Amino acid sequence: MAAYTLPEGFSDFDMFAFGSALLVGGLLGFFLNAISILAYISVKQMRTPSNFLVFNLAVADIMLNITGLIAAYASLFYSHWPWGQDGCSNHAFMGMTAVLASISFLATIAWDRYHQYVTNQKLFWSTAWTISIVIWGLAIFWAAVPLIGWGVYDFEPMRTCCTLDYTKGDKDYITYMGALTVFYLIFPAYVMKSNYDAIHTYFKKINKHRWNTSLPLRVMLFCWGPYEIMCIYACFGNAKLVSPKLRMLLPVLAKMNPIFNVWLYSFGNEFYRGGVWQFLTGQKFTEPVVVKLKGR
């Protein structure tokens, strides 16, 4: 059996610690998102166009959980990536598709919630399906681009998982990362902030705050913001000057996002959690009524 040396900057304990974090986060996220997915499939009353968006978010997040579990397995049992460069590219492609789709559905759910609470406009099935197909199609397209040369997939610092190689900092990386930053960070963040601010204003008018409207955007930026900052920094500086452990910590934090999402959008969603409860206990749920302002 070939002997593999540990990556620079990592000890056996580091491999165990990061691998354990990926394992716990992956298992917990997978379990919770599986409940969300199975509840939607099993409880007929849940199958509405708005809940279909939450269902798609759970599908994207469970894909990210799977990539985290693969990385955890490689870290804990091999201390290196055992499936070659092609396996690395496939792993990174799956992870990137999941991330881009997940962030897109976060923005779409914010837009739909605005119409649920403020304008009282129901989402049609045709619109929900069209949006979902477009989101998945664009996510697959942007995730496939590095496979054909615009950006490159390579190993993360611990060399037990794969992502976009931000260490080169060449023109291809800069232009690709610039496009992702605009379309998958700035634009989704703007959509989320504008819609949740409008919902907050509406809640103040009816004097009833049904949930924390600032939390969804804060959670997304908490999980993905530090990693995105590092990727943007790599456009202008040498990312290799950043500590390998810090460069590994940031994607591990980002991979925890599915756990927060399932609590916010499945278990914490008043239109969705009743169906989850019915799936788990068999008790029927009644869909909540949204209070509307007079004249609307």
TrEMBL record:
Entry-linked SUPFAM superfamilies: Family A G protein-coupled receptor-like
Domain of life: Eukaryota
GO biological process, alphabetically ordered: phototransduction; visual perception
Keyword Transmembrane helix: yes
Cleavable signal peptide: none
Example GO molecular function: G protein-coupled receptor activity
Function: Receptor for all-trans- and 11-cis-retinal. Binds preferentially to the former and may catalyze the isomerization of the chromophore by a retinochrome-like mechanism.
Protein keywords: Chromophore, Disulfide bond, G-protein coupled receptor, Membrane, Photoreceptor protein, Receptor, Retinal protein, Sensory transduction, Transducer, Transmembrane, Transmembrane helix, Vision
Location (main, coarse): membrane
Annotated localization: Membrane
Mode of membrane association: Multi-pass membrane protein
This protein's record includes keyword Ion transport: no
Name by which UniProt lists this protein: RPE-retinal G protein-coupled receptor
Transmembrane segments: 15-41, 53-79, 91-111, 123-153, 173-192
Pfam name, any one: 7tm_1
Organism of this sequence: Salmo trutta
Residues annotated as domain G-protein coupled receptors family 1 profile: 32-265
GO cellular component terms, A-Z: membrane
